[in-house]
Each structure stands twice: as structure tokens, then as C-alpha cells.
Design a protein that fits this description.
Length: 306
């Protein structure tokens, strides 16, 4: 069994079975924070630069203090090293970076005395909470990578112009407030599906709760624009860069469900699952792409290039 890892923003390696958060941490009681999920493969976290850039933008959207990216890189290096030492370089890991506003009793920006937690880590009680964990990749990940997934579309409940009109909605930020996403996936399971693709009130394709939608039409890969309120996909960005180097065309453009139905292939792209082919959409069995193995290899190349 894989051994999980807990590393603080200061680079301290702690016992992952010893409680670390205070009960009133705003991550737990409000979801007031941001996170990133990275794949650890062959002893190395992948796509680090893009993930930290997105962490910085998400923190800015929530008015969190600007994250110290150099310290995060040090913590990531420590986390991936300890993971490989305890579990072997060949064992894939899921690294999760968490950055919250801290304690409700003394949130960031308020004066508070220093304290020493039971973990032995000294910090200001009004500091942001910042740590990362590394744990095993779920067994189902290998299955969906190989077999694909059955998806239904669900109404996200807003227009594509909401992100511009209401920045406080935090669309496009990777926040800890994931209850709605989890509810959508449970609803999908109750309908006999594995996952969800959200659509806007106009019927435009947005994203999956934990993935970016990418469609292939001929030699062109397309994905919805982030201006529509979708999270910028780190793996999608790496994929498009790799695709362009291979002579494929890429496009950021509005997509509708009909565009997915007629596509030569549709995938859900994410940092850990990588490429999951949509093999059924709203009950319609999608034909297997002619170059499915080539696409999967391109995603692997994109992730390994970082």
C-alpha cells in the first residue's frame, strides 16, 4: 500500500496521519481557498509551471496574499522526492496543493499572536494555510484512461457572459468550493453515466467538473474559451503546445453539443487522468477515433515534456 505524504509550505515533512488543520480553518468551514492537483510520475511532478501560474491567478481572484512560488517549488521538490523514496519512482502519485485564507478566528490580514501547533510547526495564526499532500492515484484512473467514459450534459445554470459581469462568482478560479461539482457527478452516476459536461444557458459546451473538454475535427483540436467561465486547463495547454509542434491545428472557440456529436473524437483532459475518451454522450455511442492511440501518445508526450 502506498504511503501518503504531507509537506508544509515551509518544506517540513509531517506525519500525514496527525491532524494538521484547525477546526475553524476557512478551507473546511467556507471552502475559502484554492488548490491545484498535479501528477507525480517517475518521481517528478508534471506541468509545475502551469499549475503554479494558475494557483497565482486563482489566489488573486480570491484576494489571497500572492503565493510565494519559489517556496511552493521547494515544497513540490520535497514532496516528489519523499514520495519516490517511500513508494518507488514507478508509482504514480496525486499531488494536491492547498492554499486557504487560514483560521476563521483570525483570518489573513488580522493581527494575531504567534502559536505553536501540536505538529511543532510555528506560524502566525493569521497566516494563510499552505501545504501539499501526495497520495496514490485512484485505481479507476487506469480504467478510464484505457476504456473511456460515459458522459451526460448538465445545465450549469448561467450564461457565458457571467464571468465578465460577475467576477465575484470566481468562474475560472480553482477554488476549494467543489460541492456542486461533486453533486453533479453523483447525479450522473444515478443516471448510469460516469461523468458530466456542463453547458451554458445558451447551450454552449463549458467543461467537466474536473476536466477540460477537447474535441477533434479533422486535424484540428478545439476547446471552449476561458472567457466563457471555464477553468484554464493546464494539461490542455500542454497538449495544444505539443499538437502544434506536430503540425496539428488548435482552436479556442465556442462549441455546442452538436459539435461534439459530429467530432472525430472527444476527450476529457485533466492533470491526473490525462486523456479520457468520451465513448458515450447522452446515451449516444461515440465511434472510436481512427487515431485514438496517437492522441493518447500525444498527451503523454505533452505531460512528459514539462
Amino acid at each position: 500500500m502506498s504511503q501518503s505524504i504531507l509537506v508544509t509550505h515551509d518544506g517540513a515533512v509531517l506525519d500525514p496521519d496527525v491532524p494538521y488543520l484547525h477546526a475553524d480553518d476557512l478551507a473546511a468551514v467556507r471552502g475559502d481557498g484554492v488548490f491545484e492537483t498535479l501528477l507525480v510520475r517517475d518521481g517528478r511532478a508534471r506541468n509545475v509551471g502551469r499549475h503554479l501560474a494558475r494557483l497565482e491567478k486563482s489566489a488573486e481572484a480570491l484576494d489571497l496574499p500572492a503565493p510565494d512560488l519559489a517556496r511552493w517549488r521547494t515544497a513540490i521538490t520535497t514532496g516528489q522526492r519523499v514520495w519516490a523514496e517511500k513508494n518507488g519512482r514507478a508509482t504514480e502519485g496525486l499531488m494536491r496543493i492547498v492554499y486557504s485564507r487560514g483560521r476563521e478566528s483570525a483570518p489573513v490580514g488580522q493581527a494575531a499572536p504567534r502559536e505553536r501547533a501540536e505538529t511543532g510547526i510555528t506560524r502566525e495564526s493569521n497566516e494563510a494555510t499552505a501545504y501539499l499532500t501526495v497520495g496514490p492515484v485512484a485505481e479507476k484512473v487506469a480504467t478510464v484512461r484505457a476504456e473511456g467514459t460515459r458522459v451526460i450534459t448538465l445545465d450549469r445554470g448561467y450564461s457565458v457572459d457571467l464571468a465578465a459581469r460577475a467576477p465575484w462568482q470566481l468562474l475560472g478560479a480553482k477554488t476549494l468550493s467543489y460541492a456542486t461539482n461533486m453533486a453533479a457527478q453523483r447525479y450522473a452516476a444515478s443516471q448510469g453515466a460516469d461523468d458530466v459536461i456542463y453547458v451554458s444557458s445558451e447551450g454552449q459546451v463549458l467543461e467537466s467538473p474536473r476536466s477540460t473538454v477537447v474535441a477533434l475535427h479533422g486535424d484540428t483540436l478545439s476547446t471552449p474559451p476561458v472567457e466563457n467561465g471555464v477553468l484554464p486547463g493546464t494539461t490542455q495547454q500542454a497538449l495544444f503546445a505539443a499538437a502544434e509542434s506536430e503540425g496539428l491545428e488548435t482552436a479556442i472557440r465556442p462549441l455546442r453539443v452538436a459539435d461534439l456529436i459530429v467530432a472525430d473524437g472527444v476527450w476529457l483532459i485533466s492533470s491526473v487522468t490525462l486523456a479520457t475518451r468520451v465513448r458515450a454522450l447522452n446515451g449516444y455511442e461515440m465511434p472510436a477515433p481512427a487515431r485514438e492511440a496517437d492522441f493518447a501518445a500525444l498527451v503523454e508526450k505533452a505531460v512528459d515534456a514539462d
